[in-house]
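Q: What would this chain look like folded?
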Amino acid sequence: MKENSKLPEGKFYYSISEVSDYFGVTHATLRHWEASFDIISPRKTSRGDRLYSANDIEDIRLIHHLLKEQKYTIKGAQEYLKTSRRSLTNRLSALNTLRAVRNELEKLKKSL
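A: My prediction, written as C-alpha cells:
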C-alpha cells in the first residue's frame, strides 16, 4: 500500500478509484481479483460502477497482503484462504495495529 494514501472516513462505500489508489493497484487488478476470489463482491450500480464496502476492503487487504507482500500466486492465495483465512485475518489485524503504533511513536519522536 502507498504510505500516504488514505481512504476518506465516514463513507459506507468507496469507488474503484479510491480503493485502487489506496492499495496502489490498477482498476484492472481489482477487477481481476474480484473475478479470482469469491470473497470480493462489491455492490454495483445500475451503470455497473463498483462500490466497495468496508468488508470488501478488508478482504482486499488480505488478498493484497498475500499477493504483494507474501508473494503468493493467485492459485496459492486461493488455497491459503480456503484453509487459513481466520489465522491470517488475526495476524494481519495485529500487523496493522503494530504499524499504527509505530507511526504514532514516530510522530512523538519527531515532536520531541
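Residues 14-111 form a domain with the Multidrug-efflux Transporter Regulator; Chain: A; Domain 2 fold (CATH 1.10.1660.10).
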